[in-house]
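Box 3.1 A note on notation
Throughout this textbook, protein chains are presented in two layers. The first layer is the amino acid sequence; the second is a token string describing backbone geometry. Keep the layers aligned when reading.
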Amino acid sequence: MDVRNVLDRKGKGTTMSPMTRGRLLAVLALLLVALGSTLAGCGGEDGAPAPTAEPTATASAPESPTPAPTATPTAPAVLGTPGCGQPLAAGLRAGETTSRTLQSAGRTRTYLVHVPKGYDPARPIPLVLNFHGLGSNGAQQHVYGGWVPLADREGFVVASPNGVDNSWLLAAGLDDIQSVRDLVAALGGELCLDPARVFASGMSNGGFMSTTLACRASDVIAAIAPVAGQSAPGAACSAAPVPVVSFHGTADGVVPYEAGTITAGAATGTPFEGVPSIVGKWAAHNGCSGEPTESRVAADVVKVEYAGCRAPVVHYRVEGGGHTWPGAPAVPRLGTTTTSINAAEVAWAFFVAVTGGNQP
């Protein structure tokens, strides 16, 4: 604001007394001071420091008290985790993956965390929890799932935890659900996360883990994307609907597509009701109406989608696909890996769609 321009406009066609001119200068000076205080306390949309007000000339004091200007309402602050506004913790660097530990229920748990390039501690961003399969580990899934390059491109955090005995929900005397709650809290204390955009994905046993989280931690998990393994909502499941996008190959020899038994280490012989039944139960849980519609998105991939849901339910049936992650490097002993779609890319687009975009 230019005081001289205002005075010129005010004085155009009129004659101002020295007293009137002094009062006006004082009021404008107060407005500039108030504006400068407001700007100094707010960052720009891109997180850059806001400009400060230019110094103003000294104005003569008014003969009588001048009412203080009314502050202009500001937009509500974006809510994030306690890590918002804090510098990165020791060892964490934008664009890099770090191995970290946390204590949960008296046990040391380990995980990898990738902070995206261009991380801004003033901007709450999403978190994707990336769970490995039975016998695998966080480091392998960190690469296999394909989430890390996507995180750098789209701007979200990826955490790939290690299950005890390289498994989830199988080790006796453990509460893996609580360990995930503790992990999310720990990450939120160090990083600026959006608690409304915490997602879970996983391969095989990790897929079962993500669907179990949707049931028992729906207050934490906003949506899930299980691959080659999922469980149906049961009696212990929260009533809250959770968006689900899942992927499974029809020639999976470990977790069969149709009803049968699982053949994987300690889980071998476990009955499995089949993917169509499980997806249908998630559709019922999420209040979907009618039968699903099918559309072919590639020569070997069919999209199965329900309508009228309180939370979306989408399934990608990979025809001839093995116990593999779509779009990942091939693992011949586990069957065919489709390259027609990329599970991480499709899942991320789904996450963005169901949570209203990728902006705070």
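The first strand starts at residue 96 and ends at 104. Residues 232 and 277 are 8 Å apart (CA to CA).
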